[in-house]
Amino acid sequence: MQKKQQKSRWIHCPSCGGKTRNKVYQDTVLINFPLFCPKCRKETPIDVVQFKMIIKK
User: What is the pLDDT of residues 1-57, one digit of tens each?
Assistant: First the structure.
C-alpha cells in the first residue's frame, strides 16, 4: 500500500515573518488559533483555511 503524501506548509509570523513551530496541511482548518512566535515573542489570533491565513484584530 502506498500512502499519498499531503502537502504541508509552516505558518510564518504575521509580525516578523519568522517561521513558527506550527505546520498545517491543505485540509487543516484553524479558527481563532493563538499563534505564538518564538522569535518576536508575540501572540496573534489567526484563522487558517486551505493555507490562507487571516489575521484577527
Answer: 566 778 999 999 999 999 999 999 999 999 999 999 999 999 999 999 999 999 998
The three-state secondary structure class of 54 is strand
d(CA 34, CA 14) in angstroms, rounded, equals: 12
pTM: 0.82
How many Cα atoms sit within 13 Å of 18 on the Cβ side?
Answer: 13
Strand 8-12 with 52-55, pairing: unpaired
